Amino acid sequence: MNTHPATPDTIAEGARILKAGGLVAFPTETVYGLGADATQPEAVARIFEAKGRPSFNPLIVHLGSADWVSDFAEPDARFHKLARAFWPGPLSLVLNQRRGTPIAQLATAGLETIAVRCPEGAVANALLNAAGRPLAAPSANRSGAVSPTHADHVAESLGDRVDLILDGGPCSIGVESTVLDLTTREAVILRPGAITPEQISTLIGPVAAATNAAHAPKSPGQMLSHYAPSLPLRLNAKTVAPREAFLGFGPTDGATLNLSESSNLFEAAANLFAMLRSLDNPDRFNAIAVAPVPETGVGIAINDRLRRAASQ
Ligand code: AMP
Ligand code: MG
Predict the structure, then answer these.
(1) What is the model's pLDDT at position 186?
(2) What's the CA gap between 47 and 38, in Å, rounded?
(3) Which CATH number fits the domain that encloses residue 297?
(4) Which of 34, 56, 59 is the best mutation target for the ligand 1 pocket, counting ligand atoms within 8 Å of the beta carbon and taking the most?
(5) Cα 22–63–69 angle (5° rounding)?
(6) Which pTM value belongs to this model?
C-alpha cells in the first residue's frame, strides 16, 4: 500500500519523492492532486502517463505562497488584489510566464502563459514548503474518471502508478478551482469553480465568460489553449527533405534534434515542446519533419499534440 496518513514524517518523505522526480498525490480543498515537480520535465511526463491522459493540456502549477509567483510569472495589480482576497483558495490565475523560468514546457503545454494557484489546507501547504518546488498537479485520477475527493478514490484509480498518496481526509470543496485568465485586458473565466464571477468582479471589475474570441491566437504560433509552431509539420517522416528540420525519435539518420535517441517516451514527452520551439525557425527551415512516435503510453499524448500542431 502506498497510502499513508499525512504526518510530518510522511510529508517529508513526499517532498523527497517529489524532488527526486516522483509522483505524490495530496489533498487540497478542491480535489486530490497528482503532484510532480513542475521544473522537471520527465516528472511532469509521468503525470500524463499515470493518468493515461491521451493529450497534453496545460496544468495548474501549485505554489507554497503568493510570494513564489514572481519567480515564475508576471503578476499585475489584479493578481495582487485577487491573491490577497482568495489565496490560499480555489482560484487559479493565468498569467504571462516570466522569461527564463525553470518551469518545464510540458507543464504549460508549451504556452507562454502559466496557471498558478496557492491551495488551501495544511497538508498541501506543508508539502509545497517542504519540497520548495512549484508542483504541477491535475486531479489524481485516471483520465476520464471523476475527480477524487478521498485518498481511497486516488488509490482505486491510480494504484501503484503514484509513488505516495498522502491521506489528509476528505476534500472540503470537492469541485475544481475556478480558472481565471488575467493575460487579457478584461479578465476571462476559463473554467467555473468555487469562486464566482461576482466575487471576482467586486475586486477587479467586469469579467467575461470564455468565448471563442478569448481562445483566438494571441500571436502567430501561440494560442491560448494550444501551442502550435508557425512552420508546417510533416508527421511519420522516415527521411528528411531539403530545408526541412528533422525531429527524430529513436535511432534517426539525419535528425536535427532527437526527442529521445534511446526511444524513451518520457524523455520524448519532456523534450517535445522545447524542441518544437527551437526548430520552429523560418530563417533556417521551411517545415518540420517528425519521425514516427509509437502510439503507446505517453506516446498517445505526444502523437495527439503533434497531429493538432500539424493540422493548424
Ligand atoms: P487541471 O489541472 O486538470 O485541473 O486543469 C487545468 C485547467 O487549467 C484546464 O482547464 C486548463 O486548460 C487550464 N489552464 C492551465 N494552464 C493554462 C494556461 N496557461 N492558459 C489557459 N488555461 C490554462
Ligand atoms: Mg480532472
Answers:
(1) 94
(2) 10
(3) 3.40.50.11030
(4) 59
(5) 130
(6) 0.88
**Is residue 224 assigned to a domain?**
no
Q: Are residues 140 and 21 in the same domain?
A: yes
Closest CA relative to residue 141, chosen from 31, 275, 20: 31
Closest ligand to residue 139's CA: 2
Angle at 179 between CA 156 and CA 100, to 5 degrees: 95
Which residues form the domain of 267?
233-310
Residue 294 lies in a domain: yes
**Tens of pLDDT, residues 67-110:** 999 999 999 999 999 999 999 999 999 999 999 999 999 999 99
| 131 and 245 assigned to the same domain | no
For ligand 1, mutation pick of 60, 63, 143 (most atoms within 8 Å of CB): 60
Q: Determine the distance separating the centroid of ligand 2 and the alpha carbon of 32, expressed in angstroms.
A: 10
